[in-house]
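Researcher: I'd like a candidate sequence for this fold, 404 residues long. If you have to choose between options at a position, lean toward the conservative one.
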């Protein structure tokens, strides 16, 4: 008889977004006349920018001619895209990241889930709490758990770093020294971020204790403040301790197109072993490259027209963020985020739990958000709204919330 991977039995509770969908569907079925506005799931709604569509059309046409047809892509990515990334996301910001340190992929979710494969099973991981669930679940699947504490419902090798209003959502160095540290900045779900100086402290800490930082920069394009780093490689010493993940989903609307990249610097080593070489080997073995058409679309993100059009798209969502933030404030809520990220994190009123507030908002305002407790224990008592809806619905949702 075969065995299954028993680590899967250790995974934390049911998947957050399927629970939400079930509740929303049940409510809609019971109340078919109600117009529900969804500000819950982190998916974009604006169509792809014209420069991207144009690049994709051109690439599709190339694929129809023998002279310009493309088969398997190079498994680390096409040179034209890696060069565009190196120039625009790194050289232009004074970061030392070479094109051949960039691994093109089909998105940051798979990279953030897969990157743990190159680390030993007894490594301890530290995550911010609340947390993007992929970081924890992918490590639990790999057996990176340690021993279970029934009382707290936590694993000894998964260190939660509380990020709450009390510490201004800035994680503190944990008591137990981690081997792998996940940082998502600007943060999903809290919409908050660290200053560049605060991030530098984490880089110094990682280098000191011999930990690696897995830095998720999925929301980098939403940064509006000057003292916030767009890349961890803006910090001194990051090349010896940090891996950086990027997505084209939130800055360019590629959630359905699929494209991302990961930087593993050549200076990142464990003794003599190069993590860069390990990830290249892993990528080459288990991944066959992002589609040519999509990589051309990615290249267009860095063209002059592409940049201008995407700046407008980000501004559109950030106008929603402002609408949500100010509307909630007017209604007396305590709100965070929404300045460098398309997420607003609010304190639930009247000591309601996150799920109580979810039901309250669904039933009384017909607005869907995400309960903070679904992202980790420190998310209890908080609630996430996203700025990824369309503007008219966002305005309407806030009118309803204000009228409660
Ligand atoms: C949306 C998101 C991603 C992006 O995932 P893709 O697979 O590139 O669509 C990565 N990390 C976080 C924290 C996200 O919210």
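Model: Candidate sequence:
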């Amino acid at each position: 008889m075969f065995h299954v991977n028993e680590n899967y039995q250790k995974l934390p509770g049911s998947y957050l977004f399927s629970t939400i969908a079930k509740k929303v569907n049940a409510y809609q079925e019971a109340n078919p006349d109600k117009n529900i506005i969804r500000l819950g799931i982190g998916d974009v709604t604006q169509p792809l920018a014209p420069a991207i569509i144009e690049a994709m059309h051109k690439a599709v046409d190339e694929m129809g001619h023998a002279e310009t047809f493309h088969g398997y892509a190079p498994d680390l990515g096409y040179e034209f895209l890696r060069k565009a990334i190196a120039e625009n996301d790194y050289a232009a910001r004074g970061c030392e990241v070479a094109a051949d340190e960039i691994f093109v992929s089909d998105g940051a979710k798979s990279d953030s889930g897969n990157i743990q494969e190159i680390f030993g099973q007894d490594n301890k991981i530290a995550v911010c709490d609340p947390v993007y669930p992929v970081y924890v679940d992918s490590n639990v699947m790999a057996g990176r758990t340690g021993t279970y504490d029934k009382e707290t419902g936590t694993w000894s090798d998964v260190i939660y770093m509380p990020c709450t209003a009390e510490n201004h959502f800035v994680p503190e160095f944990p008591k137990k020294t981690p081997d792998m540290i996940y940082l998502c900045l600007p943060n999903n779900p809290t919409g908050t971020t660290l200053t560049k100086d605060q991030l530098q402290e984490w880089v110094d800490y990682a280098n000191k204790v011999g930990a690696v930082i897995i830095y998720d920069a999925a929301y980098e394009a939403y940064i509006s403040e000057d003292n916030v780093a767009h890349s961890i490689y803006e910090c001194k010493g990051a090349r010896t301790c940090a891996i950086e993940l990027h997505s084209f989903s939130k800055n360019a609307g590629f959630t359905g197109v699929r494209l991302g990249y990961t930087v593993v610097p050549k200076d990142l080593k464990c003794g003599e072993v190069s993590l860069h070489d390990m990830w290249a080997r892993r990528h080459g073995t288990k991944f066959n490259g992002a589609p040519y058409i999509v990589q051309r679309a990615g290249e267009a993100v860095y063209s002059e027209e592409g940049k201008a059009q995407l700046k407008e798209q980000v501004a559109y969502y950030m106008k929603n963020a402002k609408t949500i933030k100010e509307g909630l404030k007017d209604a007396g809520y305590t709100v965070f985020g929404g300045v460098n990220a398309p997420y607003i994190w609010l304190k639930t009123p009247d000591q309601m739990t996150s799920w109580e507030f979810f039901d309250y908002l669904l039933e009384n305002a017909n607005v869907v958000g995400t309960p903070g407790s679904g992202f980790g224990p420190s998310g209890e008592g908080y609630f996430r709204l996203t700025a990824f809806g369309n503007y008219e619905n966002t305005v309407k949702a806030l009118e309803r919330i204000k009228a409660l």
